[in-house]
Structure formats: C-alpha cells, structure tokens
Write a structure and sequence with these properties.
iron, seven-stranded antiparallel sheet, dioxygenase, binds fe (ii) ion, single chain, Jelly Rolls, 2-oxoglutarate-dependent dioxygenase activity, binds 2-oxoglutaric acid, four-stranded antiparallel sheet, metal-binding, alpha+beta
Length: about 300
C-alpha cells in the first residue's frame, strides 16, 4: 500500500483569487496561567485580549547606549552596506533595515538570548523558542519610508511556511519613539481575524516587498473594516521601552519626516513546535536570513 506524503493542513489560506477574513484557529497565549517568567498573569491576559503588550523599561539606559552604538557601527560599516542582508531606502539610499542582526553581531545575539526577552517569548508561546527573524529598522529622519499595513503571519505563513500562529515579535526602541517619527501602529484585537490576501506571490517577491510591500497587502475595504471594528493604537516610548506583539496583529507605520531617527530592533520568536515547512503560498522559500531554517532553541 502506498501512502500520500504527509502534508500540513493549511489553516490560513491566502494569496488566492479573493481576499478572505477567517477566524483565528490558534490560541494567543500558549502557556498555562501561572507559568513563571517576567510577564505577570495580568500582562498575559492583556496580550491575549489586545494582541500586544508594552513594557516600559525592558532594557536600562546604559544598555540602550550599548545597543545603539552597535546599530550605528553596523549601519556605518561599508561591508555591511554591501551585504545582501542590508536593505536600503529606495529614495535616499540610506540603510533602512539590516536582517539577521543576532547572527551578524555578538551584541545583538546577547540581546536575543537575554532572559528578560526570551523569558517573555517562552511565556507567550508556551515552549522553547528560536529566532525566526531579527532585524534593525533604522528609520532615519528626513524621509525614511514607513511600513504599509500588514500581518506578519500572513507573510510568514505564505512565504516562509510557518503553519500556526505561534510566533511573537518584540520591538525594542533604541531611540525615543515620538508620536511624530513613524512609530508602530497596531489595531488592538485584530490578531483574532486572519486576512487572507488576494493575489499570487511572484518569485523573488521578497526583494521588492522589503522596500515596498505589494503581494500580501490588505485592501482599503478590509483595512477600513478592521480599523472601524478595532481602532488604531500608536506606540510611543523612551529608548529602552518595548512592544510585544502577536504575529497576526494588523500593524504598520508611517514615514519619518522629522529630524529624529526612530530606530528599533525587532526580534521574532517562533515556537520549536511550529517550525517552518514549505511555503504555503509562494513558489520558493525566502532566504534563511529572512526566514530561519535553523530551529535551535535560544536561551
Ligand atoms: O518598523 C516598523 O515600523 C514596522 C516594521 C514591521 O512591521 C516589520 O518589520 O515587519
Ligand atoms: Fe511587521
């Protein structure tokens, strides 16, 4: 008797002919209440409800100086500029993002493995975790472009093959995030609805999408519906503050036309019980510096 090869069911179809809204099929907080860690039960309940949780001083001002100096070193390093993991602004040609900073830099590796960081990720995901992606988003002043509305999970599912919503991001501010310099906006509660996007994924989509998102972009109608239902929250905070957000939260950020850079480091943790399979809606996998295939637990 022959058996068909094992396939992971696709709980979240996307990139088809039509845009679809589907209820979330996965828990938001995967650990049992009372699981020890830096988050309190109240924090976890708020995360479950809103799809995010802000932490005022995740790292100290001294640590901010260290990490910010490392960011400056990386973006001013000519070798880094030539590296495929650096993404430049289409207009100014300044560095916009550097991927895989936890592999490039020992300093950022330490941050990704810090118990204040991994401990929270473990509490949310209810298991050991590994880094699916890390990046610094520099957002220099005077015209850095924003990130159009998206759900990270939509892309990670379609293009990187993450099966379930068991992934969480932390954005740690390394400069002050004002209400004017392109801070992160999230629709609270939007993490409960999956927006399957219309349109097939072109090959090598990632090259374009890292500068400007196209495939995987929600329609105006869907965004209007979600914003009317959930509202929009803007995150501000001192350097050292952090925002934890669910992989399916609808989020984005505007351009930064102020003189004040908005530089954050993002670390994405995935559960070791949700490792990547083949992409669900893309012809090829993205490179590993964007979607990791090394599932070694961190911390
Ligand atoms: O840096 C931002 O404002 C948002 C970035 C983001 O959503 C992402 O990197 O997926
Ligand atoms: Fe995102």
């Amino acid at each position: 008797m022959t058996t068909a090869p094992e396939r992971t069911a696709d709980l979240y179809p996307t990139r088809g002919t039509e845009e679809v809204l589907i209820d979330r099929k996965d828990p938001v907080v995967w650990s049992a209440p009372g699981t020890p860690g830096p988050f309190t039960d109240e924090d976890l309940a708020a995360f479950e409800r809103d799809g995010f949780r802000a932490v005022d001083e995740l790292i100290t001002p001294d640590e901010v100086s260290t990490y910010h100096a490392e960011l400056e070193r990386l973006i001013n390093d000519p070798e880094m500029r030539a590296d495929e993991r650096s993404i430049v602004e289409p207009r100014s040609r300044e560095i916009r993002s550097i991927f895989e900073v936890h592999k490039i830099s020992e300093v950022f590796a330490r941050l990704a493995a810090d118990p204040r960081v991994v401990g929270r990720a473990r509490q949310i995901l209810g298991s050991d975790v590994y880094v699916h992606q890390s990046r610094i988003n520099v957002k220099p002043g005077f015209g850095a472009s924003g990130f159009y509305w998206h759900s990270d999970f939509e892309t990670w599912h379609a293009e990187d093959g993450l099966p379930n919503m068991r992934t969480v991001s932390v954005s740690i501010a390394l400069t002050r995030n004002y209400d004017t310099n392109g801070g992160l906006m999230i629709m609270p509660g939007s993490h409960r609805t999956f927006l399957g996007c219309a349109g097939a994924t072109p090959k090598d989509n990632y090259k374009k999408s890292l500068q400007m998102q196209d495939a995987g972009t929600p329609s105006d109608e869907a965004l209007t519906k979600l914003a009317s239902a959930y509202g929009i929250r803007l995150f501000t905070g001192e350097a050292g503050s952090a925002t934890w957000f669910d992989c399916n939260a609808m989020h984005g950020s505007g351009d930064n036309i102020t003189p004040y850079p908005r530089s954050n480091v993002f670390i994405v943790f995935n559960s070791v019980e949700n490792t990547a399979v083949e992409p669900f809606a893309a012809p090829v996998r993205r490179p590993e510096f964007i979607g990791a295939r090394d599932f070694t637990p961190i911390g």
